[in-house]
Every structure is written in structure tokens, then in C-alpha cells.
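User: Hey, my collaborator sent me this sequence without any context and asked if I could get a structure. I don't really work with proteins. Can you help?
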Amino acid sequence: MSTRPRVLVAGLGNIFFGDDAFGVEVAKRLAERSVPEGMRVADFGIRGIHLAYELLGEPYEMTVLADATARGGAPGTLYVIDPELDGDGVPAAAPAVMDAHGMSPDQVFAWLRKLGGRPGRVLIVGCEPAQIDEGIGLSAPVASAVEEAVRLILDLTERECHRAKGGPS
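Assistant: No problem. I've predicted the 3D structure and written it out in C-alpha cell form, which is a compact way to encode the shape of the chain:
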């Protein structure tokens, strides 16, 4: 039996709003590769409640969310975000609001907490969008960042798994 930590990589976003589909495309690309043992890659799209139930039902030591993240950088810029934790060591969360058309990551964590779950370590790999207007397809700078995001996620999860086993970070 493996002692490698279980990792969930969750692609988030709406494919009908341009660059908002970044996380979905990252999950698609990762799913086409051979991923490390213990890693589950899934496209959750706008189904945040399904992500909350996935985290509730499975013991993941680490969750990586891939999502479009507007932070003011140049389009295609990648960010690794270590979310702020509350006093219980859980990502700070908004109120638990159910929305059939999507839930932001903080709402997912609020819903998870309301259901009695804990997500383990959470990292967000975000990409600065160029446009999130109606339309299908990523802009050129965001499409160019997808493969780099895949490599970044694989590297981050490998380092975190190594650290969890007691190795240097």
C-alpha cells in the first residue's frame, strides 16, 4: 500500500465565458498525462457543490484548485495562492451559500465546513484572464499558460508530497 499522500487537482471554471475555462483546460491536459499515484484529476467546472461533496467523501491530504484568477497582472500570468487559513487551519470561507450555477472556492470551503468536512492543504494555481466575456475558447495568453500550469501543478504536488514524507521542502 502506498504512503504517498492523496491529492485532488480540481479544474474550475465556465467554458462559456472565455478565459474562465482555464481550470477546466488544465484538468483536461493533466488527465491526458500519466499522473503520480494517489493523484485524482477532475473537471468540476461550475459544479462547486460536487467539489464540496468530493472533499467531504475522500480523505485528500492536498487539494490544488486550477482557476482563472484576476489579480491585476498581465493576461496569462500564473499565480500560486496559499489561501488564508482561519483559526481551525481551514481556508477562510464566505457564508455557505448554495448556488446551482456555481460556487466560488471560498463558498465551496464554507459548504464543506457546514457539512463537517476539512479539505487538508489547499493551493490555488490561478491564471490572470484576458477576457471573461461570453464566448468559447481561451485567449492566446491564457492558452499559452495552460501547459506551464500543468508542469507547475505536478512540481508543486511532488514537492508537497516529498515534504509530507519528511523530506526538505
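In plain terms: The chain has one domain: 7-164. You can pass these C-alpha cells on to your collaborator as they are.
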